[in-house]
Design brief:
The complex is a heterodimer of chains A (about 240) and B (about 650). With about 240 residues, chain A is an alpha+beta fold. Helix content of chain A is about 20%, strand content about 35%. Classes of the chains: A alpha+beta (about 240), B alpha/beta (about 650).
Chain lengths: ~240, ~650
């Protein structure tokens, strides 16, 4: 059975990198006695994949991992069990059953929500600069590739945006094909406003990760939060049991 | 949410910031302000190494079980953070509470190897605690040292208020109770009272309460001549300053290791520690009595934990940590009486659930090969032998029981089972070593390769690869070699080159590889291991010159150490090369580890006569550890093992 787990990462845990978080969850699953499936072979490993790595120093309300289990208790009780095996700064929010043929979060991830705040305050008037920045027909950034420098327009990759009281909300393209980092957008904005973005200027918080429902490129984007693709489990279940 | 001692800016600018955030799973997280005594336990090396140390996990758990006492931890900040903390004058903090170390009542430092001494100074210094015990006042924590290097605490005696000699499980309760009492009753000016009274507790050495005098280069202590000319420059007397302070301090040990503290839920770090697994200590001590091995002497007598205790702990520890691997810890696992039962229990209960079982320090025999074929992929693993010396003659000198036949038979069995990689560990510069002994190293390696090629081609697995490495012999206190001279750096290097050249002449040279350790570090380790109180200013000087993380080759600065030693008139040859006479007062003679000086001297003489001594189970050799009233000394020897 495929299960999608949504979790948040806070406080000091933002200094624990992605690879260590993967190791952390392997141990956490064992402590919580999740009946997770193992790969076959001489050194079996847990079947577990993460939708999208989170950068060092970034906190989040919406991280995802997919696991496969042989049996499971209800969603509510599994959330309790896993949280009891978690440190304070990692919280599980949902534990849902996916359709048997569902692709992993990693395979379908298409967009991510971010809240961007400023560690030392924004050096320019954000509420004035942001609309002007987004009115540009193109937002070109230079990208270093193997064959030299390349210009890319990031404007079409910014799906949603609005200034907040103390920062900025951004819904950005995310995933293995076209991944736009909030730092890249902010770097372009700073440069547009006549400033240079320092490496520690931003406080980033990820809110949610989405998959794409639209089938073709010509269709309008239709995003669905990754947890919405699964359903809550209300009765304990076993592999092979009819649903 | 816990407030961190370091800002985001600092944490994001250093390597592996997770080293400094604490909050690990199973952390005690007690309320610092509500405690009677706050203890900070230090491993003076980087976090990943310190977190792997079982001793701290045991004592951390023990302290935190006690009401009114909180134990936190601190490790050496890596040089990148060290630099920032110095520049910004940030006090070093306990990783869990994130409170400055100087706000704790007691700082306990475990001393696992001599090359950590400058890191001890780093930790005390960054904590903004005076480096010298005599400069500390009533607002400073008590600094306590323990662990194997406390068996010769003298080179670092000036930096510590107390050394705890032996195993921590037995006397910390008394010590913390005394601390509470003195703090309650004495008010200000408590420090000297506490130290004086602490010296009455078994196992406690308070260096400031002792006085050492030396013979000068002419062999005189004032008007008093040394009884032998060889004693020039050595210790003339070592005595307590007051009548109530004990002359000798006997180590503390736990006699019943199946009825004592052992964590059920140890800390699980976020980043990969060197030991990223459950560590089950099956026994303490070693019956073997290898003459170069300090651990084999100071941890006597052997005390086994009961099989039921270990089974129960294994289950609890795997559940509470979620680790994917369990390893057994001891100096010689093959000597544990119920090893087979324990290993089968672990394999039967956990191997199917994605848990690896690993066994270090095992003799290579049929049991080992059967075990390995069950739990490991043979293609990926290699066999390890530690003959330590190249010839039987020299192995008799060091009392290493392993024979050439054991090695060749073990290797042959393994080769037939599909193994084709062998690692060999040797030491160069062992007392009495001859050219023949040195050349015995490549010859033995070559014999193993020949044994491989004797197996018919279709029954062996490809080509054999034998990797031999040698370290240089360092003489340690409380071993039969404590009187022996060590080689100089130049002699060490010449020996290693000779061995390397001989390797090239071997028939199977293409299947053999040889490497050796740095000689510089060995020389410094030797000086620190057998040094006395006169070394302290030079260690401090080396630290001031920037020496830190000396155990890490990349950070070891031999040139700076030489300058520091020279400035304080420390002669390396006096400490390393000199062969001592029996009458010499060794700097650590006032400590009693059970094993007597007489026994060690007898062993030193037997070594020179190439005579072996039986292990503790074959027969008692009267080492002295019997005084502790437990362990192997009282086992029923009629039972055949």
């Amino acid at each position: 059975m495929k299960i999608r787990v949504k979790f948040g990462k806070y406080g000091g845990l933002k200094f624990v990198g992605h690879l260590d978080i993967m190791r952390y969850f392997q141990k956490c699953m064992r402590r919580a006695k999740v009946d997770i499936r193992y790969s076959t072979g001489f050194s079996p490993h847990q079947i577990m994949s993460f939708a999208q790595p989170l950068g060092l120093g970034v906190t989040s309300d919406g991280e995802y991992m997919d696991i496969e289990v042989n049996s499971t208790d209800t969603s509510e009780r599994m959330i309790q069990r896993i949280n009891a095996a978690n440190v304070e700064d990692i919280r599980i929010y949902s534990y849902r059953l996916l359709p048997e043929k569902a692709k992993t979060g990693m395979a379908i991830i298409a967009a991510a929500d971010y809240e961007v705040r400023f560690r030392y305050g924004c050096p320019f008037d954000l509420k004035e600069a942001w609309p002007r920045f987004m009115e540009q027909t193109q937002i070109l950034i230079e990208k270093q590739t193997k064959s030299g420098k390349k210009e890319t327009d990031i404007k079409p990759l910014i799906y949603e945006h609005y200034p907040m009281e103390d920062g900025l909300f951004l819904k950005l393209s995310c995933g293995s094909v076209v991944n736009l980092k909030p730092e890249t957008v902010m770097e372009a904005l700073y440069s547009f406003a006549g400033f240079t973005l320092g490496p520690l200027d931003l406080l980033l918080h990820r809110k949610e990760l989405y998959g794409e429902l639209a089938q073709k490129e010509s269709e309008e984007h239709c995003f669905l939060a990754l947890e919405e693709m699964g359903v809550d489990i209300t009765e304990p279940m076993c592999e092979g049991q009819s649903r | 949410m816990r407030k961190l001692a370091l800002s985001d800016e600092i944490l994001l600018s250093v390597e592996k910031p997770a080293r400094y955030i604490g909050g690990e799973f199973n952390a005690a997280n007690k309320d610092f302000d509500a405690m009677d005594v706050n203890i900070c336990f230090c491993f003076p090396d980087v976090y990943e190494i310190g977190m792997s140390h079982l001793g701290i996990q045991i004592l951390y758990d023990m302290f935190n079980r006690w009401e009114g006492i909180y134990c936190d931890r601190v490790y050496s900040p890596w040089p990148d953070l060290d630099k920032i903390m110095r520049e910004q004058k940030i006090p070093l903090f306990g990783v869990e509470s994130q409170r400055p170390v100087k706000d704790f009542d007691i700082l306990c430092v475990t001393l696992q190897y001599e090359m950590c001494y400058t890191n001890v100074l780093q930790v005390i210094d960054l904590s903004q605690i005076p480096l010298l015990s005599k400069d500390r006042g009533d607002d400073d924590p008590i600094v306590i040292g323990g662990g194997p290097c406390a068996y010769n605490p003298e080179p670092i005696a000036d930096f510590f208020d107390i050394f705890y000699i032996g195993e921590g499980e037995t006397q910390y309760q008394r010590l913390t109770e005394l601390y509470k009492k003195v703090r309650r009753e004495a008010g200000g000016d408590w420090r000297q009272q506490f130290l004086r009274q602490a010296s009455h507790i078994p196992g406690m050495y308070v260096p400031s309460l002792y006085e050492v005098t030396y013979y000068d280069q002419g062999g005189m202590e004032g008007d008093n001549p040394a009884p032998r000319p060889e004693l020039a420059g050595t210790i003339a007397s070592f005595r307590p300053l007051y009548e109530d302070v004990p002359e000798r301090i006997r180590k503390e040990i736990v006699t019943d290791v199946s009825d004592t503290y052992y964590p059920d839920a140890p800390l699980v770090p976020f980043i990969r520690a060197t030991q990223d697994r459950v560590v089950l200590e099956i026994q303490r001590g070693c019956i073997r009595g290898c003459r170069f091995c300090q651990a084999g002497m100071i941890y006597r007598p052997v005390r086994e934990r009961s099989i039921d205790f270990l089974k129960e702990k294994a289950v609890k520890l795997l559940e509470s940590t979620g680790h994917e691997e369990i390893t057994l810890s001891s100096l010689s696992s093959s000597d544990y009486s119920h090893l087979e039962e324990l290993v089968n229990f672990l394999i039967d209960n956990f191997h199917g659930q994605g848990v690896n079982v690993s066994l270090p320090s095992l003799r290579i025999d049929a049991f080992f090969l059967d075990f390995m074929s069950k739990v490991q992929d043979i293609r990926k693993s290699s066999l390890t032998f530690a003959p330590e010396a190249g010839t039987q003659r020299l192995r008799n000198v060091i009392n290493k029981g392993l024979t050439e036949e054991d090695i060749l038979n073990g290797a042959a069995l393994a080769f037939e089972g599909g193994w084709n990689r062998v690692k060999l560990y040797f030491m160069l510069g062992i007392p009495t070593e001859t050219v023949e002994d040195m050349e015995g190293i490549p010859i033995l390696a070559d014999k193993i390769a020949r044994r491989f090629y004797e197996i018919p081609k279709d029954q062996r697995n490809g080509r054999v690869q034998i990797v031999a490495s040698s370290s240089f012999f360092v003489t340690k206190p409380f071993t039969p070699f404590q009187w022996a001279g060590m080689c100089t750096k130049e002699e060490f290097i010449a020996k290693a080159r000779h061995v390397r050249n001989k390797f090239k002449e071997m028939r199977n040279a293409k299947s053999l590889k040889y490497s050796w350790h740095e000689a510089d570090e060995t020389v410094m380790e030797g000086v620190l291991a057998r040094g006395d109180r006169r070394l302290a200013p030079a260690i401090l000087e080396a630290y001031r010159m920037g020496c830190m993380f000396d155990a890490w080759s990349d950070f070891f600065h031999y040139d700076r150490w030489l300058l520091a030693l020279e400035k304080w008139g420390i002669d390396i040859d006096f400490y390393n090369s000199r062969t001592r006479v029996y009458e010499e007062i060794l700097p650590w003679d006032f400590l009693d580890c059970g094993v007597t000086k007489k026994f060690l001297w007898r062993e030193w003489e037997k070594a020179q006569q190439e005579l072996v001594t039986a292990n503790c189970r074959m027969g008692c050799s009267g080492c002295g550890a019997l005084v502790f009233g437990g362990g192997v000394c009282f086992e029923d020897k009629s039972e055949v093992r």
